[in-house]
Design goal:
By secondary structure, this protein is mainly β. It has 2 domains: about 210 residues, Sandwich (Jelly Rolls); about 210 residues, SPRY domain (Jelly Rolls). The strands form 6 sheets. Strands 10-6-5-4-3-11-1-16 form an 8-stranded antiparallel beta sheet, with no helix packed on it. A hairpin with a 4-residue loop joins strand 23 and strand 24. The chain is elongated and about 70 Å long.
């Protein structure tokens, strides 16, 4: 959602003392100030809910020269592979200060703060004020870079998180309630963001009209079925002399770019499930395949700490544990690559532009029969590199970057959206499939 926001300007003032915000969030970039939800007139009259540059969560309200609310969590939110559920419930009419604002993450109330400046009793918030712009996804330069789902605003009620989620009886994991809150109030709304043709649709009983600045990209990734993406906490920018700097990861963490050279690894891994994914590259200096290693270098990790097998479409080379060989079809720029991983049998296949080398469905002609050593179980991660240009990964989201591939292929479970036919017995790398097959 980077540089994209959804906006509505209320024409009627709602309840400025009592309200609830609920949203399911999957983070993109780390280490940047990002606004998820706000309501503002200008920089001196606004409310912001988002992330600080140190990856803490905050809510801040300012009116004129005065700060009215200022909270920042001690806890940092740095898991790019997880969907978080955030709830802010405000009722400034409460006599007890601690009851005027409550913050919840995955159903649990946060009580540990760096800053905890509660609103004054009976404060009239900038929220729900007629004429102030209500925005989702950021404003100015502080845009949110990840994914959002089921963003709800309830005008006139301070609600518990159990109105929007519940604990799974089997796994104990906090899970989404996909319905909209029944009585949203005057300015309340419910943006499920599940209709790929109308992502800013208000599904609440109010059916408010929103406008979108920029272009929203739909995704199959959602709180009920979490898909693999690039892990921004495990990258390599120091392979060659002169490399370094911050890697560029965007488009819901499915596009990796670097002016010099950078390696990217997936958030998910498997040592049992047969897995399929696709990569588009617009240059010949990218590598794609799998990596198996325990990240020992902190945020960045060098190839010296890792073992990997990859296609290197520069002179039609293959790489095994960093050593270059030859083989495979002649590669050119602007190519789509397919990968089929069978970790239980230590095999992997690749294809280009719809044509396989070998036959993954039959289990024959594997490109590699020795996969990277597994130091943590499971730990065979999809990987790709970028050098001067981008690598675009599709784990079943249906897009390469922000461009839809236009095809309707799914895996055998009916999951994902792929450009090419998924080999029989191979599956998208997502939580539903990992639970069923991996």
């Amino acid at each position: 959602m980077a540089s994209v926001s959804i906006q509505r300007t209320p024409g009627v003032t709602g309840n400025r003392k009592t309200w609830t915000w609920s949203a399911w969030i999957k983070r993109g970039s780390m280490g940047a100030t990002e606004t998820m939800m706000g309501h503002y007139t200008d920089s001196d009259n606004r409310v912001d809910i988002g992330f600080m540059a140190v990856d803490t969560l905050y809510i801040y309200e300012r009116e004129g020269a005065s700060t009215k609310i200022d909270f920042q969590t001690t806890r940092k939110f740095r898991d790019p592979g997880a969907w978080y559920h955030f709830v802010v419930a405000v009722d400034t009419a409460q006599a007890v200060e601690a009851d005027r604002m409550k913050f919840y993450v995955n159903g649990t109330q946060i009580t540990d703060w760096i800053d905890d400046n509660y609103p004054a009793q009976d404060l009239l918030s900038q929220m729900d004020y007629s004429g102030n712009v209500m925005t989702i996804g950021g404003r100015s330069s502080n845009y949110f870079s990840g994914e959002m789902s089921h963003v709800q605003w309830v005008d006139g009620a301070a609600l518990a998180p159990t109105e929007f989620g519940s604990v799974d009886a089997t796994s104990g994991i906090w899970k989404i309630k996909t319905g909209c809150y029944a009585t949203p109030g005057t300015n309340g709304f419910c943006l499920k963001m599940e209709d790929s043709t109308n992502l800013d649709l208000d599904s609440s009983s109010n059916a408010h009209t929103f406008t979108t600045s920029g272009t929203l990209t739909p995704t199959k990734d959602n709180p009920s079925n979490n898909f693999c993406t690039i892990n921004p906490l495990w990258t390599d920018v120091g392979i060659f002399s002169g490399d370094g700097g911050t890697p560029d990861i965007s488009d819901g963490n499915l596009t990796g770019g670097k002016a010099s050279h950078c390696n990217y690894n997936g958030t998910f891994a498997t040592d049992t499930m047969k897995t399929y994914w696709e990569v588009y590259v617009n240059d010949t200096n990218q590598s794609m395949g799998v990596m198996g290693a325990a990240p020992t270098g902190g945020v960045t990790q060098g190839y010296a700490d890792a073992t990997y097998n990859a296609v290197y479409p520069y002179g039609s080379k293959l790489r095994t544990n960093g050593s270059e060989g030859s083989g495979g079809p002649v590669s050119t720029a602007n190519s789509y690559y397919m990968f089929a991983l069978d970790p239980a049998n230590n095999k992997m296949w690749y294809g280009r532009n719809g044509v396989w080398v070998g036959d993954p469905a039959a289990g024959t002609g594997a490109t590699w029969t020795t996969l990277p050593a597994i130091e943590l179980t499971p730990n065979t991660h999809p990987m790709a590199t970028s050098q001067n240009n981008n690598s675009y990964l599709n784990f079943g989201n249906g897009y390469f970057g922000t461009t839809a591939h236009g095809e309707t292929n799914t895996d055998d479970a009916g999951i994902g959206l792929f450009k090419y036919d998924v080999p029989t017995g191979f599956y998208a790398l997502c939580t539903k499939n990992l639970k069923a097959y991996g």
